[in-house]
Amino acid sequence: MRIPQLDRRVLYLLLALVVSIPLLVNVPLPPPAITPPTKSFYETIETVSTDPKTKDKLVIISCNFGSGTLAENLSQLEATLNHIVSKRMKFAIFAFNDPQGRDLGGSTAQRIADKAGYKYGEDWVNWGFRPPQGIQSLLKAMVNDLHGALGTDVKGTKLSTIPVMANYKKADDVGLIIEFAAADTVKYWVQFFQRAGTTPIATLFCPTSVMANEAYPMLETGQLQGMLVGLKGANEFETVMKRPGFATRASASLSYSHLLIILLIILGNVGMIQDRKRQQGATK
Amino acid sequence: MFQVQHGAALYTHLAGAAVVSVILFFALTLVPTKLRRPLIMAVTFAAGLFYALEFFWPVSGPESDQKNFLTSYIKPFSDITTVLQSFALGLGVYSLVSIHLRKVARTQSGWAYSLVLIVSMIVMVIAHIGKEYIKAPWVHQLNEFAYSGLMKSLDATMFSIIAFYIVSAAYRAFRIRSTEATILLVSAGIIMLGQVAIGQAITNAIPNEGLTANLRVENMANWILKKVNSPAIMAIDFGLGVGGLATALRLWLSLERGSYFEEEL
Lengths: 284, 265
Hints:
The complex is a heterodimer of chains A (about 280) and B (about 260).
Chain A: H1 8-24, H2 36-50, E1 58-64, H3 70-86, E2 91-95, H4 100-116, E3 124-129, H5 135-144, H6 146-150, E4 174-181, H7 186-192, E5 202-207, H8 209-220, E6 226-227, H9 230-241, H10 246-283
Helix pairs in contact in A: 1-10, 2-9, 3-4, 3-9, 9-10
Chain B: H1 7-29, H2 33-56, H3 74-105, H4 111-133, H5 137-173, H6 179-195, H7 197-201, H8 217-252
Helix pairs in contact in B: 3-4, 4-5, 6-8
């Protein structure tokens, strides 16, 4: 039987159905296997939140993503922030690559913090957005003087007058950096901040799936302590936390769309082999 | 060196900075053409030298606060960088608006798109900056509509369209025409299956301990990512790093040639 050449509109329709149906109807799916990067991501937060040396230090939540990658980065952010507030850790929202990160990170933090009984200024703060072009020099300045380098929070209040920042003045007062990004912006933390204090700061990375490949070497070298790989990583983390969210619901869409792509690759190749045999037959 | 200002002091400082900037820019235009290039070279070299010296100069002091004589100037340098970037942003906005306004005024081909760009830009600036300073409800409603209602959805839509192209490309272009293409396809298949729960379920029956664990699809995917992908990425990064260092040195020493570097100033 000859495999017919599928019109691209049929392919688009198939993908639209495969992605949307599992979001509308509950499609049963086996729980995901917890991969080593997710396992170490979870364990790092657990360790930092219980170690007497780091548990009272600040967590920097760096939100360098825009609406384009909401499905992946926002799911990661929600799952991680839920874990952070459950450990009663103080945190700061920061953005330097995409101006949208300030609002997306800030509004998500506000929603989760409100539910957890966190108060703005006492338990968490939003440092706001800083231009990406000067981030190297800003991070270098932040190492010795967080208040001076950043100046004010997102509302224009001096950081030195915000209660939560009273004990956090330099890199040594930071216990954990978590980067949520649509690009490889974690390298700036690794290059200019992570090891600039007296002790290295644990650093976690939440990239989109396509960006994760570039970060694996940093996991191998110990520059990153853990990583949530895209929506799949968020799904694994929600499973570990036993707190299903959007990533768990969307994992069926992800699963079936991957299967569709594999099926289409096989179909395309079978069609090619058939065409090749037919051409060989015709020339004989 | 620079302190955060509020209220009347902020506006006084802003006005002062604007006046100083205008005088400085005017003074720069008076520099003879022959001296412009040496001036740019000197400023570029001095700026680069500051960070290089600060990094390599020995530090002293208590362990938690080790500094050299340049460390305390990092913050003002960071502020100066931000201010310079702001000028670049202003220049970019001016350039964009002037090009598209001209297009609209002359009703050149595609002028309607230019008009949409200018209107969108003005609306977004009013809505997004306005919500920080204006309490009127319409500003917040406009921001909700323009940013949350339109921009966020459009941005997400644009990005998700990639998935449709991937499907089309996977069907039409991902063919096993050579040994290399076959290896690539098999690796991609394992990675894709290893990334999703339904793919992982295929080998769920295999125990995740001992030698047989290597046959589980997620472990195979992880092995490819860590042992095959990582060294390749490291090699690329190393090459990029060396190339970046060479380029940085050429820029720092004003040896770079080509577009933007050889034009008459």
